[in-house]
Amino acid sequence: MKKALFIMLFSGLLIGCNSQAAEYGEGLQDVADQMLDNAAKAEEILNQYAVVWDHTIQSGGAIPVSEMSTITGLEESVVRGYFEVNNIDNIPDDFSNNIHSLNAYYNDSGDLDHIEKTADEIKNKINELNDPPEEFEKTYDELLDMYTFYTEYVDMAFNPDGSLQSFNEKVNQLSSDIAGKYKRIEAVMPNEN
């Protein structure tokens, strides 16, 4: 009887540990997925900055409001509300002002706020996962590396700077780094068998 009770208790502990490990693994995967999703939202904004930046440089002069509306996908009234518009309904070819105008739009629209709130949730979840079971230590380290690239990437949506070339290079490199770390997390994630 004691032997059977001991076996049942030991089995329960093993199942409980496996259950906790499986739950931890799900938590890691959830955070990696959230980072990837939030980075994709930031990428939409970063790509739009690059389009406006490039178009402003390439225009070689004032940009009609209707043209800026077309390249941004924003209504003309929204463009007029956020971009500097002269009295003949043109936007000056100042890429810095135009990027800051677009940034103000994303700030007021709540897009940046949503990205920031999600980033805060991700940070909190990573803090909760900071004591990984031994079999998840490598995966957690990869998650931390991904988080480093991810935070730098998301920060660019709030503070676009540099030259257009350096901005695009950094966006492309960080995007590649994030995707690579995500794949690495999937590769080193212990099986739940």
Q: State which percent range the strand residues make up.
A: under 5%
Query: What is the H/E string?
Result: HEHHEHHHH
What is the 3D shape?
elongated
Mean pLDDT: 90
Percent in helix: over 70%
State the major sheet. Answer: 2 strands, antiparallel
| Total DSSP E strands | 2
Q: SS-based structural class? A: mainly alpha
Q: Give the N-terminus to C-terminus distance in angstroms.
A: 30 Å
Please tell me the total number of domains. Answer: 1
Query: Radius of gyration from the CA trace?
Result: 24 Å
Read across the widest sheet, the strand sequence of neighbours is: 1-2
The helix count comes to 7
Unreliable segments of 5+ consecutive residues: 1-17
Give a topology summary.
Layout lengths: L1 H58 L3 E2 H8 L3 H7 L7 E2 L3 H15 L1 H18 L8 H22 L5 H25 L5
Antiparallel strand pairs: 1-2
Helix pairs in contact: 1-4, 1-5, 1-6, 1-7, 2-3, 5-6, 6-7
